[in-house]
Amino acid sequence: QVQLVESGGGSVQAGGSLTLSCAASGSIFSINTMGWYRQAPGKQRELVATISRGGTTNYVDSVKGRFTIFRDNTKNTVSLQMNSLKPEDTAIYYCNAAITNRAYYAMNYWGKGTLVTVSS
Known about the structure:
By secondary structure, the protein is mainly beta. It has strands at 2-7, 10-13, 18-26, 28-39, 46-51, 57-59, 67-72, 77-82, 91-101, 106-110, 114-119. The strands form two sheets. Strands 2, 4, 5, 6, 9, 10 and 11 form a seven-stranded mixed beta sheet that branches. The chain has a four-stranded antiparallel beta sheet with strand order 1-3-8-7, with no helix packed on it. The protein is elongated, with a radius of gyration of 14 Å.
């Protein structure tokens, strides 16, 4: 069984910073792309940032220059450094990872989410 567990959410004032972390554990053979998505109240879930196993990153335009995604392949973790936070960044943030388990079955996994609240 594979699990993704997020941490690091919380409340912050506009202009502040937070770092989210996500750790994958369980019967893991390999992890391909990892990423962060978010869902604001009344809105659809949207991609925030992704990072390939080799380190290639991709960001939604609204966070470019403010957020940085990075991963540690030795620890099966992915993190999201969020700077210059805005009220519109308020959302539940979800970790996502494409994981092949030790039975060589590939699947997309999601964490349960962590709440980020940015006040003006």
